[in-house]
Amino acid sequence: MGIKNLVKVNEKKMHDMSVQEKFNSTFKQIIIMFCVAIAILVLTLVFAVVSIRTIYRKYYNMNTIQADIRIDMQALSKAFLWGLSSPDDAIREEQLGKAMEKFGEFSDNLTKLAAISDDDEAINTVSNDLKTVENNGKTLGNMFTDGSSSDDLFYYFNDTLYPSIDVAVKDFKTVSSSTTEAAAAAYRNSLIIGAIMSIITFIIVAMVLIYIVDVKKKLSYSILAPVEEISKAADQMSRGNLDINIDYTSEDELGKLASDLNSSTAVTAQIVSDIRETLKMVADGDFTQGTLHPELYKEDFAPINEALNNITDSLSDTLSHVRESSNHVSEGANGMSRGATDLAEGATDQAAAVEELTASVATVTAQTKTMAETAERSRQMADRVRDDADASARKMHLVTDAMIRITEASNEIEQVTNTIESIAKQTQLLALNASIEAARAGESGKGFAVVAEEISTLASQSSEAAKNTHQLIQDTMEEIRNGNDVVGETTDALQQMQSSVEEITGMIVETGEMAQQQAASMEEINDGIDQISTVVQSNSETAQESSNVSQELTQQSEDLNRLINQFKLR
Q1: At what angle do helices 302-355 and 446-523 cross, to 10 degrees?
Q2: Mean pLDDT for the chain?
Q3: In this structure, are residues 211 and 33 in contact, taking their beta carbons and an 8 Å threshold?
Q4: For 373-392, what is each residue's pLDDT tens digit?
Q5: Could you say which of 54, 364, 461, 530 would form a disulfide bridge with 353 (CB–CB 3.0 to 4.6 Å)?
Q6: What is the total count of domains within the chain?
């Protein structure tokens, strides 16, 4: 279980880590494993060097010293034999001196051998053998000095000295064999320990590789899984679907990103739904209220709420004023119609009066004054209608100004969308830089290159979503422009009505002038009945035109009222 924990990653624990902690923990574990492997390799190398040095300093030197001693023994035997066989006393003395020098070398080499050998018993045996050889050699030297016979010298050398040398040589061979076996055993132990440490190193390297493969898989999954889920959600948003839900939950940055994206999408969906309902009410002619849920519009969304409220308020006020002005126009038109009727009746009376002109001049004069007064009242009424039409035109200009403010608010929203699109482009540049760095890292950076590619895709989809939002804003502005067209048409209709009122006013003024002319004609009634008859006929035609104009104006006012009554106003 412990080894498994060393080579396997705790996926649940990694899930709750931040992205930085995931990478720090992963590379820390890899570094520790590599350090352990390197430490074991270093120990293996140190052990190998120490073993080789030990074999060299101990066993090689022991064999060298033994070889030197055996060579010295052979030289000792040769020196004594040469001394025995030479008849020249000088040569004999020289060879005996060399033999005595070898005994000193025996002592020095034996001291060196005892210092590096672990077999004290064998060293003691060899030491005793060398002492025996030394004693026998010195005895033989004394025999040379004392002048012993050649036979005695030869027998002593052959029966005593040489056998002691032979025993020492055999014991040295035993020490040499022991040294060789010990060296072989040390070499075998070095190989075994080296193999064991190599196997341990191989196992640790294998564990590191298994851990790297496992951590690559789980680390990539812990990052790519939420990125793919967020990417799918962003793709749905780019397609205009705001009904999304990201199931990924974690304490890391991606978990917070998923939670924030869920929250922002939900708020955006609520705002879009509220705008849709508000615009539907406006399209249905209901201007009784603005947005249904003004609490949703915060920060950068606040101008949208204000713009929608201004739209409904301005349109409601404008249409209310238009309705009032239309009522005034209708009333004025009715008054004009009555005045025109009175004028027509007066013209009829004037025609009758002409027939009785010679007998009823006073009656005709009175009727002429009445007609002049009626014309003056009609003119005053027409002036009021014209003023009301002017007021209606100014209100429609206010509507146009409100539409312009809405357009400006939409442009501000479009700037926010452009900012989001710019951030998405910067994210793509960062992802590209991350991909380049991952490519420089080689095989170890492939997983991170995939992550950078996914982040780049997510940034592209965020840019696409911003473009779709930009398109929605353009569609909204198109609807606002359509509203401006409707308001423009209404303004044109009011201007036409104003022109009609001005024409009526002109006609009424003309009627008044004719009435005055008729009064003057009454003063000059004696100038001719034919002129009076002409004036009466002209008055009759003018009255008919006034009646027709007033009826048309009344009809237009009624039509305008029917259009306005289709709206629900505050």
Answers
A1: 20
A2: 72
A3: yes
A4: 765 776 676 677 667 667 76
A5: 364
A6: 2
> Model's pTM, two decimal places?
0.37
Q: Looking at residue 88, what is its pLDDT?
A: 74
568, β-bridge pairs: 286
Domain annotation covers residue 271: no
Length of the chain: 570
Taking residue 188's Cβ as centre, other Cβ atoms within 10 Å add up to 10
d(CA 536, CA 351): 6
Residue 555 CA: distances (Å) to CA of 545, 547, 559? 15, 12, 6
Give the whole-angstrom CA distance, residue 202 versus residue 356. Answer: 142
Domain, as residue range, for 191: 2-233
Q: Give per-residue pLDDT as tens, 155-169.
A: 888 888 888 888 887
What counts of helices (H) and strands (E) characterise the chain? 13, 0
Amino acid (one-letter) located at 417: T
Q: For the segment 489-508, what is each residue's pLDDT rounded down to a tens digit? A: 767 766 776 676 677 667 66
Domain-ending residue, one of 210, 233, 256: 233
Task: Flag whether 435 is in a domain.
Answer: yes
Helix orientation angle between 120-146 and 162-238, rounded to the nearest 10 degrees:
150
Instruction: Give the distance from CA 503 to its chain's centroid.
Output: 69
Structure token pair of residue 7: 């080579």
Residue 512 lies in a domain: yes
Instruction: Compare 467 and 57 and report the one with higher pLDDT.
Output: 467
Question: Does residue 47 contact residue 190 with C-beta atoms inside 8 Å?
Answer: yes
